[in-house]
Automatic annotation (TrEMBL):
Superkingdom of origin organism: Eukaryota
Protein name: Immunoglobulin-binding protein 1
Coiled-coil zones: 143-183
UniProt xrefs under PANTHER family: IMMUNOGLOBULIN-BINDING PROTEIN 1
Region (Disordered) location: 301-353
Extent of Basic and acidic residues compositional bias: 328-344
Keywords: Coiled coil
Pfam families from the UniProt entry: TAP42
InterPro entries to which the protein is assigned, alphabetical: TAP42/TAP46-like_sf, TAP46-like
């Protein structure tokens, strides 16, 4: 998605890429420059590229599984649930594409975030769907319509108050997270509260996106119906921007076929396809290069040293056998006799009848 995407060094950690993107996003929140300025847009695109790379690496590592709940996820991995949420927020700040395309991509990210949170029992069914189903049930009855609107208003006020209190707690925990040594419980509490806050915000954003899509559709109809130059869209100067595509990766082709049904206009790719693409781009090493890398690794060197020592030991023993060394042969006979008299596991009788 990001045009200023940079290649990932093969020795760079997922946590480092995510942290860089998270810190960069924090600078955007405190920036007073206009969002459509070239400097801010460049930062947004770079941040999107880093979060996209983090998403790809999370998929490659297979950190998440639908068979788990959030209690089974490691504390440091909880933050990666937020990847589609952050990508949705940053996508909405882009100014180099059609607004309709931007809000559709952001909608995909928010829905992906809520679905994953729902799978891991972090939230229930998105409330935005329930509101749409309930809306219009008593449209003809003015009194019931007013009652429904009052209930919705009270529910919104209650949620607003809950989110405000949650954000205050997150601010306090964020200060504790900046310390050099952070307790595991504090870290987990911070991520859980941050996730709950983002879930509430994602519900609100989906409602706003739904309303904005209706407005954009209305504007498009008005432009089509109106005649003359005023109703025509003037093509932007320079090359057309690349179409936006959300980065949602599945493990295999079967998941790709099923997962893609939710939004068929936005294709996904399997991990194998993604890796092949990255190898073709020269970002990830191919199989031959990985052999060269592994050949020089510390573990491989230790293995080679052990193998060389074993070869020397075998050669020495073979020479002793050829020379009929009495001491060595007596030692080998004693070993054989011991094995004959003592079965495997002999003497390991603790707590057994």
């Amino acid at each position: 998605m990001a045009e200023t995407h940079q290649e990932i060094p093969i020795d760079r950690k997922l946590s480092e890429i995510f942290q860089e993107a998270y810190d960069l996003m924090g600078t955007l929140d405190t920036c007073y420059d206009p969002t459509n300025s070239p400097e801010v847009q460049a930062k947004i695109k770079k941040c999107i590229g880093l979060f996209e790379d983090s998403t790809r690496l999370v998929s490659l590592c297979g950190l998440f599984s639908k068979n788990e709940t959030h209690d089974e996820v490691a504390t440091d991995n909880l933050r990666y649930f937020l990847l589609p949420f952050f990508l949705a927020q940053l996508t909405l700040k882009l100014c180099n594409a059609e607004r309709k395309e931007i809000v559709e991509v952001a909608e995909v990210y928010y829905n992906d975030f809520l679905r994953r949170c729902e799978d891991y029992k972090l939230c229930d069914k998105p409330e935005a769907v329930l509101v749409e189903e309930h809306h219009g049930a008593h449209e003809g009855d003015k009194f019931q319509e007013l009652t429904r609107m009052a209930q919705e208003r009270n529910a919104k006020l209650k949620k607003y108050q809950e989110k405000k209190e949650l954000d205050e707690q997150i601010k306090k925990l964020k200060i504790a997270m900046e310390k050099e040594h952070v307790d595991e419980e504090v870290k987990r509490e911070f991520y859980m509260k941050l996730l709950n806050s983002c879930i509430m915000e994602a519900h609100e954003e989906l409602v706003s996106i739904s309303q904005e899509k209706q407005i954009l559709e209305h504007i498009a109809v008005m432009r089509r119906n109106s005649g003359g130059e005023e109703g025509k869209m003037h093509p932007p100067k320079g090359p057309a921007p690349r179409p936006l595509k959300p980065i949602i990766i599945t493990k295999d082709a079967v998941q790709k076929a099923v997962f893609g049904l939710g939004y068929p206009s936005f294709p996904t790719m399997t991990v194998a396809e993604f890796y092949e693409q990255r190898v073709a781009e020269g970002i990830f090493p191919d199989a031959e290069r990985m052999k060269e890398i592994n050949k020089n690794s510390l573990m491989n060197r230790v293995y080679q040293d052990n193998e060389a020592e074993q070869d020397k030991e075998d050669e020495k023993n073979e020479m002793l056998v050829e020379q009929d060394d009495e001491e060595y042969l007596a030692r080998q006979r004693a070993k054989d006799e011991f094995k004959d008299d003592h079965r495997r596991g002999y003497g390991n009788r603790y707590n057994r009848s």
